[in-house]
Design goal:
Blueprint: H1 2-18, H2 27-34, E1 43-46, E2 52-54, E3 58-64, E4 70-78, E5 97-106, E6 112-118, E7 122-130, E8 138-144, H3 147-166
Parallel strand pairs: 2-8
Antiparallel strand pairs: 1-3, 3-6, 4-5, 4-7, 7-8
């Protein structure tokens, strides 16, 4: 009888010690891997160039992001609207900008967003912020120029250089 009990306990112990062991995944690790953001899914399509100059005070901002993503479009203009101190070569500092507008749009079912924005004469900074962690805001610098004023300045420069050429130097 003792031999049967001893043999049964030996078999039970060996079964319990050699059984496969299962491990559960750590939930924190799983969530971290699922929340990784692919920055390539978030981009601004238009305007392509940065910085650049236009004559119109209206521009279309468009881009792509996953469906339902909130996109904030902030527009800042220069405090110096005469454009005598700032140009595309000499951009204003952060303190020189004033807030013009702020709009929030959502990416549509095809993953695209668009918004027409109004600009001011001079240097404008457009900041596109995707409401997603780990995606940096995108800045675009747009210089709105007055074509008529530019033509007048070119004409006055030509007239002055012609007059200077006719006056004899002493």
């Amino acid at each position: 009888m003792w031999k049967k009990i001893l043999a049964s306990m030996l078999i039970a112990t060996s079964i319990l010690t050699f059984s496969p062991v299962g491990h559960a995944a750590n939930l924190d690790t799983k969530n971290k891997s699922e929340t990784k953001v692919e920055a390539s899914k978030y981009e601004v399509i238009s305007p392509e160039k940065d910085p650049y100059s236009i004559e119109d005070k209206v521009v279309l901002i468009s881009g792509k992001a996953p469906e339902g993503t909130s996109v904030v479009i902030d527009v800042f203009g220069t405090a110096d609207l005469t454009t005598k101190n700032f140009n595309l070569d000499k951009l204003p500092s952060e303190e020189d900008y004033i807030s013009i507008s702020s709009d929030t749009v959502k990416a549509g079912n095809m993953g695209f967003f668009k918004k027409q924005i109004d600009l001011v004469m001079g240097i404008n900074k457009v900041v596109i912020t995707f409401k997603v962690d780990n995606v940096s805001p995108i800045e675009k610098i747009i210089y709105v120029s007055d074509k008529g004023k530019a033509e007048e300045e070119i004409k006055s420069t030509k007239d002055k250089s012609t007059t200077d050429a006719l006056v004899p130097k002493k």
